[in-house]
Write a structure and sequence with these properties.
The complex is a heterodimer. Chain A has helices spanning 3-11, 14-42, 73-79, 82-90, 101-133, 136-151, 154-165, 170-177, 191-214, 219-227, 232-243, 245-260, 264-270, 277-287, 291-324, and strands at 57-59, 66-68. By secondary structure, chain A is mainly alpha-helical. Chain A has a domain at 101-289: Orthogonal Bundle (MetI-like fold). A two-stranded antiparallel sheet of chain A has the order 1-2. The chains are: A mainly alpha, B mainly alpha. Chains A and B meet through helix 2, helix 5, helix 6, helix 7 and helix 12 of A and helix 1, helix 3, helix 4, helix 5 and helix 6 of B.
């Protein structure tokens, strides 16, 4: 037994148990148990009752037996014609974008989230790199400038783009007035506006982890590379990029995972073709009052996201351990 | 070549990035002073929409509710987040620590629709249980301030824990160990040494919590009941119907408040840092004089 372990054993007091127990219980009751309830309700049937779903476990009054009725219909609905939908979704020449609304929206959500993540990375990397290489006296100011829009209302930032991009929006108005275009450009309620506003909203989440990683980099490594005859581009790919891997992964997860479930941006600027899964869940719950279906959609979404979230944790923990060393 | 000279490409990207982030906001502010009823057509300078907003009781009431929820849930989240951050950074390995670490950061990445849905389903189960139970029936509550508070606290706690944990990990533990050697009890060490050292992280965590709470729409929509609409809910239902000059005014006011606050806080913190550096340099100089003598 090492000395630190002994010290830790000797100093552990009941107070420490309370330190752990209070937040632990809070999260258990308000975060983990709710997921178990979602899982449970996803196997129930929709009913015209309050609450509008069937009980899973009932006791038979005559025999006193427990009846457990698991209903897989919600999952079956989501996965119906899986293969034919999948092949038509992946086929670039197919007219119909798959004939299953649920699979299609899962696919569109992942596609939109991947596009957003990729553009955020392309835009965010040079910005984060520029800030990390800037004079230390202005670094904080630049970082603040990137973060400032993030502190103002998210909805009103989306609203700002609605005013700019619309058919009679500010951009079209000015372009028409100066005779640059004769017809208004189709900027709104389509994939373009959806991706643009998604990138706008999530860009700071990409820049921050990249910056924290890049600012730690030792300049002498680049000097050494240059002394050994590597050009700036070669030095970038051989040194800077591999050293910022943790930041790239953390930033990508912080953008990708919440973007998959995004509800507000597709609803406000996406138009009807760009349905995302968050919206479908919302409709199933609030409009169709189908709680079991909404729960099943959520369960599949969680399963889809578990892999990137687990990856994120892995890298986050590694970074913290490295930081502690 | 100076060490901190940026290439033209990096300068260009930085400029484009800042322009991308700020142009929509600047346009929003300019058009808040628009005379015209058409939001996107400039009709001359006017402040009439400011007057309209000041008399819009729906928005004012929603803003007041949002502000109260934000303060209360950020306070609760700071307490929970400090405990959780301390447990993760200082106690480290305990039974269920992996699950704990996972649960702490999961609300940050989990899509809001899932968090909102799952919390609502829990709350409904509790409500049904309370309604049917003879003993606990008096505990029954409706959806509103309390349920939104629960949701926001859980969300904010995740972010605050990360902020406080990373501050504690960076912190030099020797001061705490010295106090322990001198016989101070853990509770005293925490309040006399650790807490003042992590106070900046707690303050920024609190502000982050306020921002997150004031901004949340989706979780709130699941957890609010009739008669309790927060500001984002009112904004959302208004802008879904189309453009509204009052929203430009609201945005301008928010940008002004947030901008002033953030810059003031940053200025204060920068001055603190330079003061500390100057003191350290002075102490070093004194030491050197003493040694030379």
């Amino acid at each position: 037994m090492t000395l630190t372990m002994l010290k830790r054993k000797l100093t552990r007091r009941p107070g420490q148990r309370a330190v752990i127990a209070v937040p632990y219980l809070w999260l258990l009751v308000l975060f983990l148990i709710p997921f178990v309830i979602v899982l449970k309700i996803s196997f129930a049937e929709q009913e015209l009752a309050i609450p509008p779903y069937s009980p899973l476990i009932t006791t038979d009054p005559d025999f006193g037996r427990l009846n457990i009725a698991l209903n897989y219909q919600n999952y079956a609905d989501i996965f119906q014609n899986f293969w034919s939908s999948l092949s038509s979704m992946l086929n670039p020449f197919s007219d119909s974008n798959g004939n299953n609304i649920y699979l299609l929206t899962y696919w569109l959500s992942i596609k939109t989230a991947l596009t957003t993540t990729f553009i955020c990375l392309l835009l965010g990397y040079p910005i984060a790199y520029a800030i990390s290489r800037a004079n230390p006296s202005i670094r904080n100011g630049l970082l603040l400038a990137i973060m400032l829009p993030f502190w103002t209302s998210f909805l009103l930032r989306v609203y700002a783009w609605m005013g700019l991009l619309g058919h009679n929006g500010i951009i079209n108005n000015y372009l028409m007035e100066y005779g640059i275009i004769s017809q208004p450009l189709d900027l709104f309620y389509n994939a373009f506006s959806l991706n643009l506003v998604m990138v706008y909203a999530y860009l700071p989440f990409m820049i921050l982890p990249l910056y924290t990683q890049l600012v730690k980099m030792d300049d002498r490594l680049l000097e050494a590379a240059s002394d050994l005859g590597a050009g700036p581009i070669k030095a970038f790919f051989a040194i800077t990029l591999p050293l910022s891997k943790t930041g790239i992964i953390a930033g990508s997860m912080l953008v990708f995972v919440p973007a998959v479930g995004e509800f507000v941006i597709p609803e406000l600027v996406g138009g009807s073709e760009n349905l995302m899964i968050g919206k479908v869940l919302w409709q199933a719950f609030f409009d169709q009052n189908n709680w079991p279906l909404a729960s099943a959609i959520a369960v599949i979404m969680v399963i889809l996201l578990v892999i990137p979230i687990a990856l994120f944790h892995h890298y986050e923990n590694r970074e913290i351990e490295e930081g502690a060393r | 070549m100076s060490k901190y000279k940026l290439s033209w490409f990096l300068k260009l990207m930085l400029g484009l990035g800042l322009a991308f982030l700020y142009i929509p906001l600047v346009v929003l502010v300019i058009y808040s002073f628009n005379e015209s009823k058409l939001v996107t057509v400039w009709g001359g300078f006017s402040t009439k929409w400011y007057g309209e907003l000041a008399s819009n009781s729906t928005i004012l009431e929603a803003a007041w509710l949002s502000l109260r929820i934000a303060v209360v849930s950020s306070l609760a989240a700071v307490i929970l987040g400090t405990l959780a951050g301390y447990a993760l950074a200082r106690i480290k390995r305990f039974r269920g620590s992996t699950l704990f670490a996972g649960m702490v950061s999961a609300p940050m990445v989990m899509p809001d629709v899932i968090t909102g849905l799952s919390m609502l389903l829990l709350i409904i189960q509790v409500q049904i249980f309370l309604q049917n139970s003879e003993l606990l029936g008096w505990l029954y509550f409706d959806r509103g301030f309390f349920t939104i508070f629960l949701g926001h606290t859980t969300l904010c706690m995740a972010y605050i824990t990360v902020v406080i944990r990373s501050r504690l990990v960076e912190l030099d533990q020797s001061l705490e160990e010295a106090a322990m050697d001198l016989g101070a009890r853990p509770l005293k060490i925490f309040f006399v040494i650790t807490l003042p050292l992590i106070a900046p992280a707690i303050a920024s965590g609190f502000l982050l919590g306020i921002t997150l709470s004031l901004d949340d729409l989706v979780i709130t929509s699941f957890l609010s009941g009739p008669g309790s609409s927060t500001l984002p809910q009112v904004i959302f239902s208004k802008i879904k119907l189309g453009l509204d000059p009052q929203m430009n005014v609201l945005a301008t006011i928010m940008i002004t408040i947030v901008g002033t606050l953030v810059i003031a806080i940053n200025y204060y913190m920068m001055r603190q840092t330079t003061k500390r550096e100057r003191e350290a340099a002075e102490a070093y100089r004194q030491e050197k004089i003493a040694l030379d003598a």
